[in-house]
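Project outcomes to date are best conveyed with an example. Our students and postdoctoral researchers have been running inverse folding experiments weekly, and each run begins with a structure described purely in tokens. The record below, which covers 180 residues, was selected by the lab manager from last quarter's runs and is presented without edits.
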């Protein structure tokens, strides 16, 4: 008896839907093809820098591999508290539980000899801010935070300015206003 009622309800529902025209298949939407995009796109103006406005269903041509810069000069920071980038190649450096090649030059005891910046004092602190004699295990694997400098173009635009340049510009603007 119950199955018969369900069958009647289903038939009535099908009749109502067909009368409303909802049982028809939806018309496919016509979408214009994506415009041709170069290998690098335009990082300065593109919002979707990672996919370069290529639809998710389309295979993206990978960017060429970036070349490591070996200029031994420090770069500016791209955002506050950014770890410094590594200004030289580290191909073949061993950093594992037994050895850390970075510390050969950047340890506090040898930095002057190799004319390398010494590791920040924060790398010798444990999680309770207690100073250790050796580098902290939390800061031992350098490439966990620090990356090698390359010639890669940024994928998205970045207008970061550090506080020193902002204050310098503000002082210059105040001085110019005072002169008028």
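After processing, the design step wrote out the following sequence:
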């Amino acid at each position: 008896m119950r199955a018969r009622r369900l069958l009647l309800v289903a038939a009535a529902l099908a009749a109502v839907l067909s009368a409303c025209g909802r049982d028809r298949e939806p018309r496919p939407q016509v979408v214009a093809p994506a415009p041709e995009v170069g290998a690098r796109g335009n990082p300065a103006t593109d919002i979707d820098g990672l996919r370069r406005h290529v639809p998710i269903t389309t295979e993206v041509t990978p960017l060429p591999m970036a070349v490591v810069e070996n200029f031994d000069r420090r770069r500016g920071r791209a955002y506050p508290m950014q770890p410094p980038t590594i200004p030289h190649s580290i191909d073949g450096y061993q950093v594992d539980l037994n050895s850390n090649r970075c510390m050969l030059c950047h340890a506090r005891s040898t930095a002057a000899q190799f004319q390398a910046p010494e590791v920040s004092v924060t790398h010798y602190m444990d999680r309770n801010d207690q100073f250790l004699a050796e580098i902290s295990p939390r800061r031992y694997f350098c490439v966990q935070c620090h990356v090698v400098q390359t010639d890669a173009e940024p994928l998205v635009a970045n207008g970061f300015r550090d506080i020193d340049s902002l204050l310098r510009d503000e002082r210059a603007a105040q001085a110019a206003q005072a002169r008028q």
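Helices lie at 2-20, 102-106, 111-114, 163-179. The chain is about 25% helix and 0% strand. The training component of this project remains on track.
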